[in-house]
Amino acid sequence: MSATISQRPVPPAAREITTKPRTSDRIFRGVVTGFGMASLAILTLIGLFLALRGFQTFKHEGLHFLTGVKWESVTSDSGKVTTDFGVGAMLIGTVLIACVALVVGVPLSVLSALYLSFYVPERLKKLLVSVVDLMAAFPSILYGLWGFFILMPMVEYWAKLLYKYLRWIPIFDAPQPFFERSPFVAGIVLAIMIIPIVTSVSREIFAQTPLDRVQAAYALGATRWAMIKTVVLPFGSSGIVGGAMLGLGRAFGETVAVFSVLNIVFKVNFHILYGTGGNIASMIILKWGEATGDETKALLAAGFILFVLTLLVNMLANFIVRRTLKSGK
Amino acid sequence: MPINEYSDGEDMSIDAAPATNSLAGVASAHANARQPGNAPLGSGLEARGIHAWFGKHLALENVSLDFASGTVTALIGPSGCGKSTFIRTLNRMHEFIPSAAMAGEVLLDGQDIYSKGMDVTKIRLQIGMVFQKPNPFPSMTIGENVLSGLKLAQLKVENKDELMQECLERAGLWAEVKDRLGAHAGGLSGGQQQRLCIARALAVKPKVLLMDEPCSALDPGSTLRIEDTIGQLAQTMTIIIVTHNMQQAARVSDYTAFFLSDGGPGNMIEVGPTNEIFSRPRDQRTENYVSGRFG
To answer: Nearest CB to A219: which of B98, B124, B139?
Structure first.
């Protein structure tokens, strides 16, 4: 019975294909593997360090650490120390300020990337591109100082306008008409700081727009704007999201610029125009100098929260980029 | 010379015109014999004294050609002879390349498409183009691709579905895609994509259709279908096709123009009815090329 079946020749087992790399190749491979893994190792070690050092705080405060809005350490007359640490207000501030930065910064970046890719005269292009790149390398304290002295008075005026005409939208309302050093100002300073990186990433992706699609659009009688809308933006959307997320990462972590313009108060504030707020990074720098014991641990725990938040945002960005890549191209 | 300073170049084309007009005249004379008057959408196109530069490099020298309405003209010649450059001057896609410049005139219905104040987007609506590589918009569905020209040029149409079907039928693609108009265009085969590009070009109702080696990336079966389509379309419009394939030129065209470069800028050597170019060309170089002795 099996004889009829086995008349077909049995294929041989697949061979194992190997190659013996040269020593020089192996050494080089080892070196690049080492450096490649180093970034992963460093990131993991930082995360572990923050988590371990902050562990006591997490254990002590529990979920309250995320939701609590106070940051207090009180020593009673009997010498007993009671602590109440919560990053809730700062967490909300972090997200709020970063959102303001994205809402203001990303459209400006995309427009400037479109200008640099499709409209700028050839001679001006090199200059502008290097200026934008220079902006990315600029120390953030200088943005902070400039924001404090020059931008803030102007933004205060814009804030008054927004308050006057758009108060009916909750986020533009304020408990008191106090608009100095608000999350709005911090967000705009951050917007200016993320513009270079988002512009740069968008410009790179726009430059890769397939020429045949661009030509197809022009040959169908498209104006330049219609071509951009139909060909460039759909092609570049994932790149724009990627750039925005890089910007968001910077906006989350930015310390000095926010510290120098924002009125850091431990209070939940959803009103972006109202001069109260803070973000985790600026809170850490504010409290670090005078912190001892439990508070130091709590600050490291807050750092861990920031670490996780940034990781989550980056993962989300990756997910979005990959999904848009799949659906379109 | 830069295109926007083009008007200064008019003298050049007038000087040059008599030398080549005798050849172009052949095309016109035979066009009358074919009675192109029954072409409702068709329109004549005339190129006069076309020169084209890329930077300082003169790529095309003094080409004058008439394209009578309702005819198919094939442009043949070896690589680098300027035939693609020439066809791109006919709908102002040439100036798309940053350093490109041109001299001469291209007349559509007697009006120079390079004259000052012309809206280049309107010209490209009337003179459509199909490229060498099929280039549908991958983020759009098949149906959206057909109608994309309307969106790009902000044209309004009464009955979009009817237009979509008409264009796909004329491009010979309707039967294959009618059940999946909502699918993405990337899933079509190369030949289907190219016919989709033809349908897309037809949707804005051009008077002239330029085809730059439309079959060179396709298999023989798809090529045949596209050649069929060209034959159908020629009844209603003027078609100019660049091809490397001489059999294709012989199959689809009424007139054939032979381009050649002797190392310098490309020239048009000869134009005439296709059967004459292939059976008894007047120029020795044309004969060498069409008989397969070089190229």
So the answer is: B124
